[in-house]
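User: Round two. Same drill as before: sequence, then structure, for each protein.

Assistant: Same drill it is. First protein:
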Amino acid sequence: MSTFSETEERQELRKQVAKLASKYGREYFAEKARSGEKTTDLWLELGRAGYLGINVPEEYGGGGGGIGDIAAVCEELAAQGCPMLLMVVSPAICGTVIAKYGTEEQKQKWLPGICDGTGTMAFAITEPDAGTNTHNITTTARRDGDEWVLKGRKIWISGVDEASNVLVVARAEDAKTGKVKPVLFVVPTDAPGFESNAIPMEIVSPEKQFQVFIDDVRLPADALVGDENGGLAQLFAGLNPERIMASSFNTGIARFALDRAVAYAKEREVFQGPIGGHQAIAHPLAQSHIEIEMARLMTQKAAALYDEGDEFAAGEAANMAKYASAEAACDAADRAVQTHGGFGASQEYGVAGLLVATRVGRIAPVSREMILNFVSMHSLGLPKSY
């Protein structure tokens, strides 16, 4: 990647993903959501084409690329009206953590299924009373002979009903120091004591959110990912990719909203011409185009820094990208609805539902307030506020 443009390979990747996703599109995605069905056929086709595991090492069934590649896949899917949240979770978070810190046996066991889509993995960190504050997580892991026993609750966990396993963040007591440390476990969704309840949502999406109950779930020793004492580093290894992917998810949705608005502004005629000829319509759409392109650039910068191994710089850029992309997406959705007038509230044009979907992007996976806290402290050197 040069300073201002992606490689020809990355650009070709985007074209091919867009071509595949366009066979499905927003109508397919919305129909599956409203009927309570899943987008399994699209997911598996992405796996067969090699896109789900493009960031995973080749020896485990992946494409050997980086976060920038899987982020491009995520963005192009969303831009075609198929924003797939599990792209953020399974290959980017779980795939990255396991590829980077898992044992050889764990990589062989779990990564091929993540790559081909047959072994999707969810990620469980947030809790009812802790959010993503790992210091306040109450899900515990304790040793019992050669096994681990997990107990706790998680909330806002995406795609549990489509996953074979869940990468669970818990806390365990260090045998030497007595201090509590974060640890990561892969938990099968059919494990005894593991239960999940879907949370009713206003968002029109085939992917559901869940509350998870972990009631003395017994796991073998090899369910612990990587080093028992390396939990914090392993956890944060998945959070930068999460923010980068969320940014691509947001910019993809924003592009979709803007494309719909521009198409309508060109064809809808009132007062002897297309409404797009009026500055009251044209200027807000032009603003959105500028905001989206700026957010995309910051996202690409964050991905490039991460793939180069510059963790701190990548973290700063990823947080900024997440902030900018969420704002751009919210604005684009609002302007798309306004451009359509009354038709913007109809199912036919497929933009009204984006108002809620993009608003969530300001909250998850990290809120804009927490991003501003990070930038205030780490970029500007201001005193800690919490």
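Second protein:
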Amino acid sequence: MDKKKQSFNTKVIHAGEPDPRIEGAVNVPIFQSSTFEFEGQTDYNDLKYIRLNNTPNHIALHKKLAILEGAEKALVTSSGMSAITTTLLTFLKNGDHIIANNTLYGGTADYIKNDLPEYGIDVDFIDSGDPSNWKDKIKSNTKVIYVETITNPLMQIGALDKVVQFAKENNLISMIDNTMASPALFCPIQHGFDISLHSATKYLNGHTDIVAGAIIGNEPHISMITSKLNHLGGSLDPHACFLLHRGIKTLSIRMERQCKSALLIAKFLEQHKKVNQVNYPGLVSSKSHARGKQFLCGFGGMLSFIIEGGIKTADAFISKLDIPISTASLGGVESLITRPVQTSHSLLSDEELELAGIDKSLIRMSVGIESVNDLIDDISQALDSI
């Protein structure tokens, strides 16, 4: 059978696996060695060394990720922020300019707005869903446009096809954070994006037990980023590679359950009298619903909402829940819940939160793979108790 014609469900398990298998092992063993014997390599980056991200664990993982998103090459890093910052610093230098979406993960937003200018890099923000004024932001030194597939924490989906077109017309490197969708729902490279980025801590791994990042794209771009990463040192250790490799194999079945459950929970919340707003692209009422149907294979396992009563009521609601765990992060098998202003977006000022449209009472939920009936019952009793 032509492996290129295999379904995603098959690829997550078998794509990129060593052939022949290493000592017949069904799973790639953990190569817990910092360095490997010299084999006559003539290029520094080809020396087998953990910091150079090229141990057998790294290589197998890179192959799998590239195949899953239909790309030429992939690279794993020590965290999602390592993937993002290393990639940005590869393509931006003093005197350059970047255009970024106005609603991003808090760590990314803070880095782009406050750290990049320290390197002499100018920044402008756009609404990725409204192309009407993008042209006004272009400068002669603009090099990169940066967006997210599904924005964190408002669950919006931009005009992704227009972003790709705009980047090509203006000779920009198009970067997209695909964490919230994962390749199970969206493959950016296949849609024309230059670089796909992930916090692999989240859906790719799916078990809340490692921190990792991933960068996916064509061979020239990934080679450039690899060189930068090798100097910055954001390498992923072999044991984390092993856990990420294992986690990816259940990505499709986890995402299928999480998408179905998130939609049912969003519909329940939308009908509840104490809920003022629900952000989930799977809802017909969502402004991102049409784009979700256009670009994605599902609407994701994340939702956010606002209940009446403000911050104190939101915190009281969270405290009454039995199943979802009150904490940061997302994408694991267990349901997690938080107010983003306390965790993922706590670095943003009041002004920045307002510009991004993030209410301080907003609650974000990462839906796990528990029984959706149990989750809805739990949410219902928590709402009834406040």
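DSSP finds 13 helices and twelve strands in the chain.

User: Perfect.
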